[in-house]
Design goal:
By secondary structure, the protein is an alpha/beta fold. The chain contains six helices and seven strands, in the order E-E-H-E-E-E-H-E-H-E-H-H-H. The protein is 39% helix and 18% strand. Helix 2 runs parallel beside helix 3. It is globular, with a radius of gyration of 16 Å.
Length: 172
């Protein structure tokens, strides 16, 4: 699989060489966040073993080995992700992936504050509709205005017509 995914990256911190990194994924369900994380770990893992921890609320939505999203479990799932993240930081895991939707700035606040505390560099990775198209799971169940608003919340300008044109192209 080609790792040249069309993602937008906003780097906080100037030193790419810093050993400890937190990657905060952003995007709706089906936008390619988990695909990006898994491919990155698989490709990087060829060279260095045991450097990654993934924190995903989806891991806590499994029932008998099958994914089953449940609104009443969401807060608990996110608290478990936060605990897992902090434990990984204490253990000095090199790369931590926050694989949740993170559609609002406040969704990331805990992770950013802990990254500062434990001296981790933070990278935000925004999965675009092109990535969803790449993996065949673009988030068309999410209203256009909600998709555009997520990007705007982070100061990323995105043309609503581009999103709409992409959705129409996908349906054909």
């Amino acid at each position: 699989m080609d790792m040249n995914f069309p993602v937008k990256r906003n780097e906080l911190g100037a030193d790419w060489q810093r050993k400890y990194k937190v990657f905060i994924m952003h995007g709706w369900s089906g936008s390619g966040k988990t695909t990006y994380v898994n491919e990155n770990i698989r490709n990087y893992g060829k060279y260095i073993q045991n450097v990654d921890v993934v924190c995903s609320a989806d891991d806590y939505m499994m029932v008998d080995g099958v994914y089953s999203w449940q609104a009443d479990k969401l807060q608990d799932a996110h608290e478990k992700c936060q605990t897992k993240c902090e434990e990984a930081m204490k253990a000095e895991v090199q790369r931590i992936w926050i694989d949740n939707t993170n559609t609002k700035k406040e969704d990331c606040e805990f992770y950013i504050m802990k990254a500062i505390e434990y001296k981790y560099q933070v990278f935000h990775i925004f999965c675009t509709h092109e990535l969803g198209r790449y993996n065949g799971k673009a988030p068309f169940h999410v209203a256009l205005d909600q998709q555009v608003e997520m990007y705007r919340n982070y100061g990323i300008g995105i043309d609503p017509q581009t999103v709409k044109d992409f959705a129409l192209d996908k349906e054909q």
